Amino acid sequence: MQLTNLGNHYYYPSQQLVKGLKKIIIFAENTKKRNIPNGSVYIYDENVSYNPEILKTDVGCGIISFITDEINYDNQSINNILKAVNEIGTHIGQGNHFLDFTTGHPTIKDRNTTMIFLHSDFNNKNRLPRNYSEAKDLEKKAIDTRFQYVEKLSKLLGISAEFYRDWVHNSVNKENNSLVYRKGAINLQETEGVGVLALNPIDGLLLYGGDFSEYNYSAQHGLGRIGSKGELWNKLEKRVCGMVRGYRISSVEPEMIEVKNQTYNKLDNFIDNHYLYFSQIGVCSPELVITTKKSSDF
Question: Over the stretch 19-40, which tens digit does the pLDDT of each residue have?
Answer without folding.
Answer: 999 999 998 776 776 788 889 9
